[in-house]
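ok new one. same drill as before - structure tokens go in, u give me an amino acid for every spot. 288 of them this time. try not to just spam alanines like last time pls lmao
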């Protein structure tokens, strides 16, 4: 399987934070969700991929090319959508199009105009008059108008209503259908990723917790619920983390079959959400 993005032993050191030699790959033709709490290293990783900050060590390849040596060629083939607007607020949409167009060898006015029409955007509207959702749609229109092979998105759906979010997800899903393009999607809204992501990479405190196919994650992890009576210091080791209150306990495990065999009818086994998995791994045990 050909990888469109490869991260090997990537390290970035700050005074109070270290990205700790992380590794993951994104195959061509798939969507990868990039999740983790605030301060986990998501934005740092994206800035390193885009060569906006200098790495301490490691390797980043995009389209099989070193992201520093071939920066210009790579960025010509990437589209980016960030959570903040980086366009001149006082310029009109069509004026910004004219500024951006020369930077991309495969720019298509027809494609840009199609998305502008689909998104109900006015080419004569100034950026500062657009809502957050409209700014995101404009950024996405730009990202999709030069036949980008990799779309990198940093919290693009934050603050958007469910209808806007669903529309963007549908566009991304349609985008990868030819199996030649990929999406790297950093977000806190894990329910969006449950709908469209093929892979999930989970980073916490500068370290990769896992980078796997979403279906494998959802199949292998389980949420366990039961009475406090069956919990003791020894069997707590069967779980990744336990959250306990006076009504009972909930726990996360990646040993679903083992738990089912050991505890049988004493526990309820449920399918967790990505948010459940994040919460238990990041927050750990909790007793109330």
């Amino acid at each position: 399987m050909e990888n469109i993005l490869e991260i090997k032993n990537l390290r970035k050191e700050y005074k109070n934070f270290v990205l700790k030699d992380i590794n993951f790959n994104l195959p061509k033709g798939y969507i990868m969700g990039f999740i983790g709490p605030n301060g986990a290293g998501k934005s740092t990783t994206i800035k390193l991929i885009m060569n906006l900050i200098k790495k301490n060590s490691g390797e980043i390849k995009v389209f099989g090319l070193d992201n520093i040596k071939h920066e210009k060629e790579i960025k010509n083939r990437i589209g980016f959508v960030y959570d903040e607007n980086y366009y001149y607020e006082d310029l009109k949409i069509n004026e910004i199009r004219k500024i951006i167009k020369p930077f991309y060898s495969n720019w298509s006015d027809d494609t840009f105009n199609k998305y502008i029409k689909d998104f109900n955007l006015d080419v004569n509207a100034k950026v500062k008059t657009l809502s957050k959702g409209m700014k995101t749609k404009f950024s996405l229109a730009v990202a999709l108008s030069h036949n980008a092979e990799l779309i990198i998105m940093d919290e693009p759906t934050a603050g958007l209503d469910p209808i806007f979010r669903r529309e963007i997800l549908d566009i991304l899903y349609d985008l990868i259908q030819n199996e030649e393009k990929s999406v790297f999607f950093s977000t806190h809204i894990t329910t969006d990723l449950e709908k469209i992501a093929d892979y999930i990479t989970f980073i916490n405190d500068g370290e990769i917790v896992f980078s796997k196919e979403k279906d494998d994650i959802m199949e292998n992890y389980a949420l366990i619920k039961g009475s406090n009576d069956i919990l003791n210091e020894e069997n707590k080791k069967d779980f990744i983390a336990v959250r306990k209150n006076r009504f009972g306990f909930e726990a996360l495990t990646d040993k679903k079959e083992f738990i089912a065999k050991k505890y049988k009818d004493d526990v309820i086994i449920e399918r967790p959400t990505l948010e459940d998995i994040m919460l238990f791994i990041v927050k750990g045990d909790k007793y109330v």
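The mean pLDDT is 90. and btw The CA atoms of residues 241 and 280 lie 6 Å apart.
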